[in-house]
Every structure is written in C-alpha cells, then in structure tokens.
Amino acid sequence: MSERRTGRVVTAHGRHCLVESDNGQRVLCHPRGKKNAVVVGDTVQWTRSGDEGLIEQVDPRRNLLYRQDELRTKSFAANVDQVLVLLAADPVYSDMQLARALIAAEAAQIDAVVALNKHDLREAFDSAWSRLAPLRRMGLSVLAVGLRDGHGLDELVARLRGRSTLVLGPSGVGKSTLVNQLVPDAGAQTGEVSQALNSGRHTTTSTTWYWTDPSRTTALIDSPGFQSFGLFHIDATELAGLMPDLRAALGQCRFYNCTHRHEPGCGVRTHVGADPADDPLAIDETRYRLYTELFDELAAKPAY
Predict the structure, then answer these.
(1) Is the same domain home to 109 and 18?
(2) For labelling alongside 274, which of 178, 191, 282, 296 has CA 20 to 30 A away?
(3) Tens-binned pLDDT, residue by residue, of the chain (304 aa)
(4) CA dihedral 194, 197, 202, 207 (to 10 degrees)
(5) Which residues contact 142 (CB under 8 A, 6 or more apart)?
(6) Number of structural domains, the chain?
(7) Are 128 and 216 found together in one domain?
(8) What is the DSSP string of 35-65?
C-alpha cells in the first residue's frame, strides 16, 4: 500500500481537487468513497495512484462554512482564520447578505472584518459608511479602502498577514483587484488549476486557495460571488446570541425562552430604534428586522 501523505485542498470541483503538499507541489486527487468529500482548506491524508492521488482521510476540521441555494445546503470552505467581507460604495450592498455572512462566521467562531472599497466615490461612500455604523458600534472591524489608489491598503494587508482569509463579496466590489494586487501570479495559478481540472469553467465556480507570499504564511481564499451562506445548521433560538448587538441585551427578558419578537417584557425590543447617544445597548432597526426575518426562516427550516 502506498505511503500516506499530508496535504491541503487548495481547490475542489465535484470529485476532483488539487492537494498541495508541504513543499508546495500540487497533485490532482479524488476522494476514496463518498465519506471523504472535501472542501477547500481541508487537511487530508492521501496516497499516490499513478500520476494522481486518492484521498484516504479528511482530518478533523477547526471550522466549516456552508452555502445554500433553493435546493440544498453545501459546505464549501474549512479551517480558515478569518472572513473578509469586501463591499463597495457602488454597487449598493445587501444588508441581508452581509448579515448572513457575519452570522455564519460567528457561528463557526471565525473572526470577521468588513472592508468598504471605492473610497474615491465620496457621496456614495459616505452613504454606505453610514449604513455600516451599527457594525462599528458593536465592535466589528470595518475598514475604509480604495483598492485602485491604495487608500487603507496597508491596514488591510496588516489584518491579513499570517492568516488564511476567506474573501467574500458581490460582483463589482473589487475582489479581483484585491487578489491580483496581493497575489501577483494569481492568473498563472488560475490557469494551472484550470489545466489540472481540465476545464476552464471550473475556475469560475470554484473556491480557490492562494498564497500571497513565497513562505506560504498568508493565504487568500477566493470564493465566487457573494455566497448565500447556509444557516440551517443554526437553531432559530441561537440566532440572537450570534448577533453581537442583540446578544448584549440578552438576559433582561421576562421569559427565559423569549424569542425577542412579540413577547411582553422583552429586554431586547426595548432597545430597538433607540438613540445610541442615549442608550449604549441601542439596536439598529434594520438589524432587528434582519433578525426577525432570519428567525422565521430558521424556525421554518425543513427537518433533516
């Protein structure tokens, strides 16, 4: 039997994936059996099979993130150190997509940072920055950047250094600009992935792990589009505890099983819409509306 080797999954599509060894070499691998399904970021044990490899085991994961569509929920990234949600002054971002990403990161105990790009679009930028005020008040790191002129880039790079960061964001916000600035050979790496998987279309839909430095201590994990994060592994009653602004007001309700939606004596709803200057526990009305919509979604989720 071939010797087992340890590697990291750097991209995956269906039952094809590239596994990178400690010396940086990459091998096309296939999972042995359905139980060994892999996602980008997985550490795996694999064996040689001709010019390719077989994944024999997926090592325990530190964390796991899910995406979902109308039909199913599917895992897509593991073992990341932080999530970077890249937004822009234009196009206008979705409060719901942003909230889902932050809740998913919180549930997986992954640090999150938000960066707002296109600093030069002053009026649009000021409007978007104002909308992010509730996140800054609850202690989330929100950075102002201009990727084309370098504004705030040093601070962003400092936040990325030495960590593996999953980069998310809708189309048009500058994700490709960021990856190309920090990963000079990203195009070449993408071409290698395409050739290895034998299809260019794989690279447009696959999450991909890039190293930004020769010593391979800092990584960007680029994921296509703004993933609709799957939250169905979260119980509706856990949701408030995963939103820091609501969590700060927990423990003040009359009923121990309060859902913070309609019960009398709710200690959370008393802070909704309050002026932050007068109430340190003020909860933004938009954030509360997102909570109620997500609570209803999770409460109605299908049984597994």
Answers:
(1) no
(2) 296
(3) 579 999 999 998 878 899 999 889 999 999 987 777 899 999 999 999 888 999 999 999 999 998 876 556 788 899 999 999 999 999 999 999 999 999 999 999 999 999 999 999 999 999 999 999 999 999 999 999 999 999 999 999 999 999 999 999 888 899 888 998 998 776 645 555 555 555 444 444 578 999 999 999 999 999 876 657 788 889 999 999 999 999 999 999 999 999 999 999 999 999 999 999 999 999 999 999 999 999 999 999 766 5
(4) -90
(5) 113, 114, 115, 116, 132, 135, 136
(6) 3
(7) yes
(8) GG---BT-EEEEEEETTEEEEEEEPPPS-EE
Domain CATH for 210: 3.40.50.300
Neighbours of 106 (CB within 10 A): 18
Q: Is residue 242 part of a domain?
A: yes
Same domain, 241 and 218: no
* One domain for residues 217 and 253: no
Q: Which of 266, 186, 251 is nearest to 222 (CA)?
A: 186
Identify whether residues 172 and 213 lie together within a single domain: yes
DSSP E strand stretches across 203-255: 208-211, 219-222
Domain that holds residue 15: 5-58
